Amino acid sequence: MRPADRAMVLLLAGIGAFGLCFVDAARLRAAAGADEAERTRLVAQLRLTDLALFTEARYTRHPSQADLHSAFQDHPLALEHFPTGSLISPPAGLVKVMPPGNPEAVSLADGVGDTAK
Fold first, then answer.
1. Which of these, 35, 100, 99, lies nearest to 109 by C-alpha position?
2. Residue 10 carries which DSSP code?
3. Interatomic CA distance for residues 6 and 104, integer angstroms
4. How many CB atoms lie within 10 A of CB 68?
5. pTM for this prediction
6. Alpha carbon 90 to chain centroid, angstroms
7. Are residues 82 and 57 in contact, defined by beta-carbon separation less than 8 angstroms?
8. pLDDT tens-place string over residues 16-48
9. How far is CA 79 from CA 43, 76, 96, in A?
10. In a 3-state reduction of DSSP, which class is residue 107?
């Protein structure tokens, strides 16, 4: 058996194992279907928050409960010192997008907060 044949056998075995992972996941999902409704009811009853994906900062642990300024609590121009802060964006409910020229939009170029005037 040539080395290329061995490599092909290993590659096909890996692809087969990868495909079996999806088959197993579908089997487990079908088996857990009845438990899904019970878990949903329990989460609503206990008023649990969203899933904590990261353990570093409070604004990455529970993004739906963080305010927009918690990442800059040390200084308004402070750099992000937790790597996970660059992996997630603020929740859609906290982001207010305003077009340029909107009277509610505030820019540093407008001189807002300028005490030299």
1. 100
2. H
3. 66
4. 12
5. 0.37
6. 9
7. yes
8. 999 999 999 999 988 887 788 888 888 888 887
9. 36, 9, 22
10. coil
**Among 82, 24, 94, 10, which Cα is nearest to 71's?**
82
Q: Rounded to whole angstroms, how far apart are CA atoms 19 and 16?
A: 5
Q: Which residue has the tokens 């990442």?
A: 71
Which pair of structure tokens corresponds to residue 16?
A: 């087969």
Residue 14 DSSP SS3 = helix
User: CA end-to-end span of the chain, whole Å?
Assistant: 84
Contact 90, 66 (CB under 8 A): yes
Instruction: For the beta carbon of residue 76, count every other beta carbon within 10 angstroms.
Output: 7
Residues of the chain with pLDDT under 50: 107-117
Both tokens assigned to 61: 């642990």
- Cα separation, 59 vs 110, whole angstroms: 29
CB 57 within 8 A of CB 71: yes
- At position 24, the amino acid (one-letter code) is D
